[in-house]
Structure formats: C-alpha cells, structure tokens
Amino acid sequence: MCRWIAYRGEMTALEHYVTEPEHSLISQSIHALESMSSTNGDGFGLGWYGQHPEPGLYREVRPAWSDENLRYLCRHLQSHLFFAHVRAATGTPITRPNCHPFACSNWMFMHNGFVSNWNRLHRQVEMLIPDALYPSRVGTTDSEAIFLALMGAGIDHPLAAAERTLSTLTDFVNQGKPGDRFRFTAALANGRDLYAFRYAVNDHANTLYYRESERGIVIVSEPLDRDHNNWVCVPENHVVVALCGERARMVPLFHRLEAAAE
Amino acid sequence: MCRWIAYRGEMTALEHYVTEPEHSLISQSIHALESMSSTNGDGFGLGWYGQHPEPGLYREVRPAWSDENLRYLCRHLQSHLFFAHVRAATGTPITRPNCHPFACSNWMFMHNGFVSNWNRLHRQVEMLIPDALYPSRVGTTDSEAIFLALMGAGIDHPLAAAERTLSTLTDFVNQGKPGDRFRFTAALANGRDLYAFRYAVNDHANTLYYRESERGIVIVSEPLDRDHNNWVCVPENHVVVALCGERARMVPLFHRLEAAAE
Amino acid sequence: MCRWIAYRGEMTALEHYVTEPEHSLISQSIHALESMSSTNGDGFGLGWYGQHPEPGLYREVRPAWSDENLRYLCRHLQSHLFFAHVRAATGTPITRPNCHPFACSNWMFMHNGFVSNWNRLHRQVEMLIPDALYPSRVGTTDSEAIFLALMGAGIDHPLAAAERTLSTLTDFVNQGKPGDRFRFTAALANGRDLYAFRYAVNDHANTLYYRESERGIVIVSEPLDRDHNNWVCVPENHVVVALCGERARMVPLFHRLEAAAE
Amino acid sequence: MCRWIAYRGEMTALEHYVTEPEHSLISQSIHALESMSSTNGDGFGLGWYGQHPEPGLYREVRPAWSDENLRYLCRHLQSHLFFAHVRAATGTPITRPNCHPFACSNWMFMHNGFVSNWNRLHRQVEMLIPDALYPSRVGTTDSEAIFLALMGAGIDHPLAAAERTLSTLTDFVNQGKPGDRFRFTAALANGRDLYAFRYAVNDHANTLYYRESERGIVIVSEPLDRDHNNWVCVPENHVVVALCGERARMVPLFHRLEAAAE
After folding, report:
1. Measuring CA to CA, which residue among B65, B63, B29, B45 is closest to residue B187?
2. Which of A5-14, A171-180, B57-66, C165-174 is predicted with the least confidence, judged by mean pLDDT?
3. Which residues of chain C neighbour D62 with C-beta distances below 8 Å?
4. Structure ipTM
5. Chain D interface test: which of A76, A80, A81 (most D C-beta within 10 Å)
6. CA B223 to CA B21: how far, in whole Å?
C-alpha cells in the first residue's frame, strides 16, 4: 500500500500539494489514514514535466518525511503536471529503481496496489513487456512491469491499452488459487493528459479521490485535508480522464469494450 | 523519542532479541506502543562487544524494518553484551554519526530522550566535552555530546560521572525558561558492566524495563512481549547497575551524593 | 569491472584480507591497478559463512573506502570462508540487490565481468533461471541471473553446472554480432568448498590470482601486495578448485567434457 | 580536495555546465586532473537560486557519477546563479549536512581546501560562529564553520568579512606547529553577486579558473575542457568579484586592508 498524488493544471510549485497541506503527502508518509499500512516509509519519488518532453524524476530510498532534499525541490520545482508517491513496499526491495513514479519516453506512471501471488505471476507479467521496451525494465516491481506492459499494449490509446493490460492481468489472477487478488490504483500521464485508475480483482480497490477547480485537478489516494466535501470519491473500476484543456470526467472501466461487444 | 534494548549475559545471537520477539525492536521501529512517536524510522544502530576491546558498530540512516543487512547481522553476530537502537529524530540531521549507539575507546552509550531548547544549551553542553575527547565528537546530537561529557567527568566511576553530568545538565535546564525540560533514558557499558538510567527534569521520564534470568539481563524501552509480568519497571530517577558476575540492582540517582552530604 | 577476494582456511578476522593489506580490497576500491576502471566505487559487499548454514551478507551502495560500518564488521566478523567485492557497475543500477556477493540457500557467488550486448541476451539469460529459483531473482544484474542459472543447472556438481551454463552462454554470445563478448571471473562456494573461474569468449579474461599456505587459500582479482612471486596467476579458461581439506588445484574448463566426449 | 563550479549569468539549465562538458564536474568526480585526489566520490551537492530568495539544495552522500537524480535535476533545473560541488573528504564524516554547498538565509557557500591540524583548531573556529547563527551549524565540517564565521563577520560587506575571517584563521594556523597549513578556495553568493577566493597559508593554494562571456561567468576548480586558452587562471591570494550587472574583476586579498593601513 502506498500513497500518491497527481496534479495537472496551472504551473505551480510542488510544495503547495506535496509538503504544505494539513494532511500532505509527507504527513501521509508517516501517518496515512485510509490505508492498511499507516507508515509509507519505504522510499518515495517525484516526477514532473517541464520544458523537456521527458519528465524529470527524483527518487530516494529514505522516508519522505525526513528528506531535506525533497523539501528544497518541492519549493523550487514548478510544473503544470507532476506526480508524487510515498511507498510501502509489498515484497520487492527498497531501491531507487523500485520507487515510483516510473518514466518511459514521454510517459510517466505510478501505482498503489499489488498482485497477490506475485511469484506465480511474475514471469507471465514480464513476458507482457515487448522486447523493444525490455531495456527500460530497470527495477523489479510488479508496478514497473505493468507500466511497461501497458506501454506495449498501444499507449497511443491509453484507455484501450490499460483495459487490454488489466484484462490480461485479470485472467492471470483468475487462473490461480481462488483467493488470488489484484489491486490497481494508478496514475498515467504524457505531459498533457492525465489518467487515474481505480480497479481491483477479487478484492476492494484502494481509495481514490480528486478535486478540480479552474486552476487544475489534483487526484489523490486520500484527501489532503479533513474537509471531505471538497473531494470526489472515484468509484471502483472507474478511470478519471483529465485531457488537456478539458474538465475531468469519470469513465467506467471496460464499459467501452462491453459496449463495442454488444 | 527512540526505542532501544541492551543485553548482557551468555553469548547469544542478536536475533533472539532484536528481530525475533513478538514485539521486537524491529517491530517497535514501525509501531512502538509506549512512545509519543510510534514510528522510529530515522535510522538505527547496533553496537556489540566481541574479542576486540572496542565495540563494533553498525549504523544506518534507513529504517530498521527494511534493512536486509540488519537481519543478516543479527543472525550472524554473537555477543555477550550488545546494544540496539531505533531512532525517532528530535531535530538533528539523520546521518550515520547521529545514530546510536556511540562508542569511545571501550565504552558504548545510547540514549532515548531530549534536551528541550537545545539551541540555547547546545554551546554549554559542547563545552562540557574535554579537549582530549573533542576529536571523538563526530556527529551533532545532544546524545553524543552528553556521552562525551560523561566520559570526561570521570568514566572510571560511571555512576559518579553520570550523576555529575546529569546534575550539571539539570542546572543548565533550570537556568532557562520555566518550561524547559530534559529527558534521559540511557544505557552505558564498557564490555563488562552495564548501566541503564531513567531520569527527567521538569517532565516524566521515558519508560524503562528489564528482565533478568540465569542467562542474562535485557533492558528495554518497552517490553519485547505482551506479558508485562516478565518485566520490572524501573522507577524514575533510578539506575540499573548490572555489574559483571552480579545480579542487577536498582539504585536511586543522586542518593549516594545526598548520603555523602549528610 | 570489479575487484574481489575469496578466502577459505582457518577462522580469521576479515580485516586481515579486506582492509589491512598494503593493496587491500579497500585500496583497490579507490585505485585498482589491473583493471580497465581503476575506481570501483559503485557499491560493495561482504558475504561470510558462520554457524548458520546460509551465509551472511552485508551489501551497500556507497563506496567501500568510506564505509565505517565495513571497517567495524571486518574487525569483528570472523569466518573460515568469506567473499568481499567492490563494484564498478557496467550498466545495471547501483542498488543493494545488485551488489555482490549473491546468496541462494547455502551457496554464495560473486562475479567480475560482463556480457556485452546484455540487452539482446537479457531475456534469454532470465529464461535459464528455473521457476523454482525465480523468486530468488531480487536484483537485475547479469551476474545474479548467471548465478541462478548455474544453481539450476545442477549445483550439486558445481563444475559440471558451471560448464553447462558457460557453454550455453557462449552459444548465446556467438549467435550475436561478431564483436559480442563475455567475460566471467567468478567465485562460488557452499560453506565448505570454494571454486574460482577465469573464462572469456571473444575477449581476454579478467585477471585471477591465488596464494595458498597451511592456513588457507586466498583468491583475488589482483594481488594484495606488490610481491607478485607470492601469487599464482590462474590461466584463462581455468578453474581453481579448493575442496574442503584438500590443496587447491587448477583444472582447465571444459577439459572433462572434452575428455568424456573422446 | 574537492572540485566545484559556480555560475552566474543568463538563466540556463545546469546540465550545460555540470554534466555535458567534455571534462564536466561529473567526469571530475571520477577523474580529476589538477587535484591531489583524483577521485571525488565522497558525496556531492547542487545549490541554485530561483524565485525564492533562499537557494535550493540537493546534497547526497553517493558519488555524483552514478546519481540518476542528479542527471534529471541538471536537465530540469534552470538558474541564473548556481553552485555544484563534488567532495573528497578530508576527515569529517560523509553525511548530507557535510556536503557542499551550505546555505544560510540568502547566502550560499562552497569550499575546496582544508585546515591542517583541525583537531587543534576545531574549538577555536566553532567559537567564531556567533550565537545567533549557531543553530545553522548542522554539520561538522571545517568548511561550514568557516562559512558561518564569515556570515557573522559582517556579511553585508562580503570582502571585508572574508578578509577578517581569513585573517583570524591565518593567526590561528600560525600559532600552531611550523608545518600547519590552510587552503581556502571557495565560492560565496547571495543570489545576485558571486565571489570566489583563492588563498593559502604556508602552502600552495588550490587551483581556480574562470571564463566569462556576454552570457555569464563560470568559475571552476579546473577547466571544463582541454582548451586552457579559454580560461583565466586566478592568482593565489586573489578574489574574483562578479557583481550583478558588472564584468568580473580580480582583486588581491588584503590589498584594501594594507592600503588603508598605509
């Protein structure tokens, strides 16, 4: 279980979302409220878009709450689209390449969830990564593998690629023991558009909220303040689609596939 | 607020105390029960005596709960006298030299507590360190400074040195604002004898317990299991004295000074 | 290119080999003499056998030359069989799981070398790891993958398993571009027996030396002192076999296979 | 011995100076040419001015050459005035607070040099830090202490403050053994103006060069390329003064004091 936030909107200093709010991501790193693991101290990461088409990354294995570099960067970095993530590891080592977000060309991804029985599915999921993207597999998390699988499933149509990948993973999970589960609460962006997914197989999905104003949208694992009226709770098996220049909308996952099949 | 354990007795693998118990120090690193800060994720340290007169140290800035090196070392290191400490920093940076325990010649020290208003007292405490020991001042914590002050106050008579140092610190604290406080729950050893202090000025002292058997004594911030009957609670302003080859005894602090003054 | 030493013999403190010699492994970490990369500052590791059948590991991403924990451990750890390794990374990230040595059940392995064109061969080499050992694949180096492949090739007969694995890798390399190369200078142990390999495909093999006395054998990437008369240079495509209770002997690689084929 | 660069000029991405040049600071971290220690792998740091009056800092204990965060930051951070530093430690621990640059309010400082016999002078230099600035003493280096002493010596007049501090330090050094030495090659900035000092007592001063164009000035420990004609070598006991909106000029240290004394 991890905690994350994603922002897209007017250019802003990261600190307004990552370090300053009452229940900021940093305070969630040491005391999350809506998570099974209240401590998210197994590393963290920032990813942000600037003038360069590829995002910048700052990832570190130490807990976010005590990282002085993180505070300086959140004060000094400005971005119109950024991710921040604090990690509670579910089995894979605590290394920088295993910290979220992950980047591949102009795409960026982060995840909160898990694949139960990862040892059984590990090889199958690795095989979903196309050869051309396999050199980008620098860490060992299930999250990075799923991201690269999704990249290889036709990332130019992100919703279709996500549904194709999630559908395959769902099949993998359901071929295992009855109790096998999969939770996927993830954010995906390309520098312009932002997508956030809330999905689960044989389990409850991890929480997902967003808040939107004229100035932008912020999507979070749990609200940044105690006033829950500010926040829209994303239903399970839905995706938030925040295209550049448009208001965000919530779309049920697999709806289009089902509609097309009728 | 930190958590620690100290052991003296038969040679044993560290894992039996540090990683294996139901409520081991490692589990206290992520979820302590009797502390203001339940997370002690700001680094950790081991110190142990072996064949060399000076203790070995292993200190690291990452949280103890995820450090694979720590698990290997606790399995493979055996000692008749060792310390283990998980840190919740109270202001000084998270660096290896600021992790406990501290070593100086054949002595070793670790601490759980704080000096409120450290900025006011910092210089005074530094001045308590004798010139000859000042090169051993490699970190910046109040704890290390107090240890070196105590070393310089006549360490050959550890109780007298501790009382002298604590008395001076008490004066320093009481010269400040009425609310200034000092908590000192610490362990001190020389490879043979083990001392543990529970003391506070203008405040409650941090908890201290011990359990003794034929095989040895283990002194802890909080019990390693839920059966509190196993554990003796050390009263405030007392010291546990566990001399080599003797049963431990609890001595009130400053009692001897007062007796001598009568 | 990395530097390493392996020891098997009388119980000894690691410091006599790792930190104390004139040209110790620590001094090789900052200034190696017989290597293309004179700086080996991309992490390091210790692995040692004690009372537990599985080896202990201490691995760290910081350079060996400045790690105070390493000095304490080398002074306090004693072993009859240990490995020490300083890394110069050849492409995979600098993480603890990517530092040598690697352990799997009672076996331990470390490596100095590389597979050129790793991106092409990566998937093939991963497939050599049997499913049962795939959960032990915690890092991303070619070295760990080769170790687990070797473990899966019948580790009860280590020479045959190594020859089988090296033969397969040689085929993989030769199926690529004419310039593709492979260097493999590695140590392997099970707590009793020690093996050291010097092998290369389409290239010179990295250097390997050893020194043996009544007290034990030490095998190294480059001599620990300037008196080269003390050291036996292992020829290319040979393996040093140091079985428990026997003098070491050098055996040509693939010789037995060739002999058996006649 | 360390290596550093300081830049003031048009807004630029840090990568053009820190990572891209033929003999960039990153390449100097693993192979410096004009230094006693060719490896500068004991941590590094960036400091830069942006919209906030106080500079941002990114400091890390790992070597610069392998830090992927550093590459991302150098690509994405833009600044009109920044410092970058790679460290070769001279005795104090390798911790983030001991990495350069150091910041205090709107001032920033970095240093290449040493005080020989630091153990003798340590206490005296600490005493030069005024009480009001002592809470900013978060590390243990001689460099940070000298910076805070200089801050306390009247930083509104930086040249006079530097000369006053260097004069005091020179007296300290000369009161010691005949062989005691002091080397000070340092950069100081306030977000607008940039100063760089080359000074030594009883020793040669560490090298210092600069290159100036319409676009800005870059001051370095050693040239970023092999064309030394591009670079002005700063004589010993001189300071480069690069005031905002003016061409840089070189001023002899203590000249003004001597002139005033005549």
Report:
1. B45
2. A171-180
3. 61-62, 94
4. 0.94
5. A76
6. 10
Residue D94 has its nearest CB partner, among C30, C61, C66, at: C66
Closest residue in B to C45 (Cα–Cα): B69
For the record, the structure tokens of C7 come out as 């020891």
Contacts of A60 in chain D (CB under 8 A): 69
Residue of D95, D134, D137 with shortest CB distance to B95: D95
Which residues of chain B have a Cβ shorter than 8 Å from any chain A Cβ?
30-31, 39, 41-42, 61-63, 65-66, 68, 89, 93-94
Interface test with chain C among D1, D31, D39, D72, by most C beta carbons within 10 Å: D39
Q: Please state, in angstroms and rounded to a whole number, the distance separating the CA atoms of residues D5 and C85.
A: 33
| Dist. CA B198–CA B217, nearest whole Å | 17
Q: Clarify whether D2 is annotated catalytic.
A: yes
Q: Is the pLDDT of residue B262 over 70?
A: no
Strands of D87-181, DSSP E: 102-104, 107-115
Please answer yes or no on whether B75 and C56 come within 8 Å at the CB atom.
Answer: yes
CA distance A152 to chain D (A): 24
For A133, which DSSP code? Answer: G
Tokens encoding C168: 């397969």
In B14-164, where do the E strands start and end? 44-48, 56-60, 78-86, 102-104, 107-115
Region B99-106 average pLDDT? 98
pLDDT digits (tens, 9 = 90+) for C146-205: 999 999 999 999 999 999 999 999 999 999 888 899 999 999 999 999 999 999 999 999
- Touching subunits of D (3+ CB pairs, under 8 Å) are A, B, C
Q: Which residues pair with residue D119 across a beta bridge?
A: none
Q: Provide, as residue numbers in chain A, all residues whose Cβ is less than 8 Å from the Cβ of C97.
A: 93, 95, 140
Over residues C205-233, the pLDDT tens digits come to 999 999 999 999 999 999 999 888 899 99
- How far apart CA A74 and CA A29 sit, in angstroms, is 15
Q: Which of D39, D62, D68 sits opposite C62 (nearest CB)?
A: D62
Chain D residues contacting B via beta carbons under 8 Å? 92-93, 95-98, 119, 122-123, 126, 131, 134-135, 137-140
Pick from A96, A134, A140: CB nearest C138 = A140
* Residue D39: partners with Cβ closer than 8 Å, 6 or more residues away: C30, C31, C39, C41, D29, D30, D31, D32, D88
Mean pLDDT, all residues of chain C: 94
For A77, nearest residue in chain D (alpha carbons): D77
pLDDT in tens, B61-92: 999 999 999 999 999 999 999 999 999 998 89
Q: Do residues B133 and B149 lie in contact, with contact meaning Cβ atoms separated by under 8 Å?
A: no
**Minimum distance, in Å, between the CA of residue C157 and any CA atom of chain B:** 27
Q: DSSP state, A91?
A: S
Please write the tens of the pLDDT for every residue from D199-235.
999 999 999 999 999 999 999 999 999 888 899 999 9
Q: Number of A:B CB contacts under 8 A?
A: 32
Q: Where are the alpha helices (DSSP H) in A35-84?
A: 68-76
State pTM to two decimals: 0.95
Under the banding of pLDDT at 50, 70 and 90, the label for residue D258 is low
Q: Of residues C1 and B83, which shows the higher confidence score? A: B83
State whether residue C262 is helix, strand or coil.
coil
- Spatial contact of A42 and A223, defined as CB atoms under 8 Å apart: no
CA atoms within 13 A on the CB side of D225: 10
Confidence of residue A258 (pLDDT cuts 50, 70, 90): low
Task: Tell me the pLDDT of chain D averaged across its residues.
Answer: 94
Mean pLDDT of A136-143: 97
Task: Examine the pLDDT at D34 and tell me if it is beyond 90.
Answer: no
* Shortest CA gap A96–chain D (Å): 9
Amino acid (1-letter code) at residue D239: V
